Amino acid sequence: MPMELTPLKKKLSLKKTKFGSLDAYQGALGQSQVVAIVTGMGTRLATEGLEHLLHQVELARVVVVGITGAIENETPIGTIVFPELVVDGATGEGYRPDQITQDLPTGKMWTSDVLITDPDRIAGLQADGVVALDMETAALARISERHQIPWSVFRAISDRASDGSLDEEVFQMSNQDGTLNAKSVASFFVRHPGRLPAMARLSKGARLAADRAASAAVDAVARLEQTGIAEAR
Question: What angle, rounded to 10 degrees, do the helices at 43-56 and 137-146 form?
Fold first, then answer.
């Protein structure tokens, strides 16, 4: 979503550009060139966005940066998730990210095009080792591996699947490109004026998570580059 890109743009001073018809942001991290895009929500848009970019630019690495939902209620908002495996919920296929930090990878990240809030479904996923839910990472991993490009993921917890903060009505307040649907937002608060404080907390959590994910990704890639330079010497 655009809000997930905002802290990355600020930290790297990325400038808006275009690759073909694709809106993108470009800059540098040390001696490495950086290109950032917003894919939109869901596996289809994620696939289309990365494929489009790969037709325009030769990439050395794909780094997925953004927010994710915790499957339980204990993990603090803003915690970075380092999954051992990212699973496509539609196919069951798993993808192992290239771990570029010293943090110990733990559990699975589950990618699904549908919002998962059913308690029994959540319990089943948790029993299978799933720790976080998202809607794009497995698709981006699949495309990266198809093109033989190493990929990593930096997502931070912005909400919790089982605490009731995110439901289908809240989900529908966002357009597929990740922007807010003003009409849906207005309609939601007319129907649920008492949920304003909860939505404010949800928004605050998303901004915190996006910022921490961006910081973790920038720091990891910077260390990776410095290690490469040192080894080259």
Answer: 30
- CATH code (residue 204): 3.40.50.1580
Residue pair 204/148 in contact by the 8 Å Cβ criterion: no
Burial class (CB in 10 A: 0-12, 13-18, 19+), 193: exposed
Helix extents (H) in 132-195: 137-146, 168-171, 182-191
- As a whole number of angstroms, the distance between CA 114 and CA 103 comes to 29
Q: pLDDT per residue over 176-229, tens digit each? A: 788 878 888 888 888 889 888 888 988 999 999 999 999 999 999 999 987 764
Q: Is 157 a residue whose pLDDT tops 90?
A: yes
Q: Write out the residue range of the structural domain in which residue 202 sits.
A: 2-232
At 214, list the tokens.
């961006």
State the average pLDDT for the chain: 91
pLDDT tens digits along 88-123: 999 999 999 999 998 999 999 999 999 888 899 999
User: What is the domain count for the chain?
Assistant: 1
How many whole angstroms separate alpha carbon 231 and alpha carbon 188? 55
Copy the structure tokens of residue 80: 């970075």
Q: Please calculate the CA angle 63-64-69 and round it to the nearest 5 degrees.
A: 155
pLDDT score recorded for residue 231: 42
32-36 β-sheet, strand order = 15-19, 22-29, 32-36
